[in-house]
Amino acid sequence: MPPKIHPFKTILFGFAFSPSLKANVLETARIAHYFNAKLILLHVGEKTVEKQKTIDGIIAEIEHRDLPIDIKWQEGKPYDVILDTCKNQHIDLLILGALQHENMFQFYVGSIARKLTRKVCCSVLLLIKPSAVRVACKHVVVNGLNAPDTPLAITDAFYVANALDAQQLTIVEEIKQSEIHVTVKDDRSLKKANLVKERLKHREDFRIRKILADLPASLTNTVKVKTQSIFGKRGYSIGHYAEVVRADLLVMNAPTKIGLLDRIFKHDLEHILSDLPTDLLIIRR
């Protein structure tokens, strides 16, 4: 099936009246413009004259005046309201914004975001460093995990990189340390372990090259592409890598397991959600 060239046609931003509201709205509007999408702003809470005046004042400062924007106000539980709105409004991308040092971080990016990433019907973008004035996105990192949804995540990562005019896209292949099957005891076993690592890297690179070969050249030829194999705990390793290379955006598959064990033990995405290294785009369609 050919990939969608415009995967995000309708964007929903769930906003609260926090100190970062202006930066979040301007950043979200900018993203919607680059994605050529309609923007819906949703506040879960009471609508007041003061709140309306505040949001109208921020919207008046949006750079791209032709952007279609719809403001919605609804009372209720944030999780339920956001979940229902995404479904009823056929949302392609849900954006939630918060800074780690704010109280709203736990409200939006904590338990609610984890629940939404399991249940919401669309992709989710978590903004931890919004800016009222554009800061160029230079480096996008995407997981190259051996999973059914990875080709979609990589495709959307290329779309985003092109839309935001990023200079580099790195596909990270996380390999479990347990796949080496060699206990290093001496120089001989160390050499054997290194040989196994090289074989695993070649295996992963071959798999990624097959994914890239199926993508249109219009997506892949306009950005510098790099592959990087890393060994370690999935989720934690790629999060650490994104932080070390100072990536502007990390793209990941949405979690698929929602069983009891998955709720008790952290899966790949849970490691990242507990300590966001950068803005995080979670792909689901």
Automatic annotation (TrEMBL):
What organism is listed for this UniProt entry?
Maribacter polysiphoniae
Which CDD domains does the entry mention?
Answer: USP-like (cd00293)
- Name used for this protein in its record: Nucleotide-binding universal stress UspA family protein
Which InterPro entries does the entry mention?
Rossmann-like_a/b/a_fold, UspA
Q: Taking every annotated instance into account, which residue ranges of this chain make up the domain UspA?
A: 70-126
Question: Which family, according to the similarity comment?
Answer: Belongs to the universal stress protein A family.
A Pfam family found in this protein is Usp
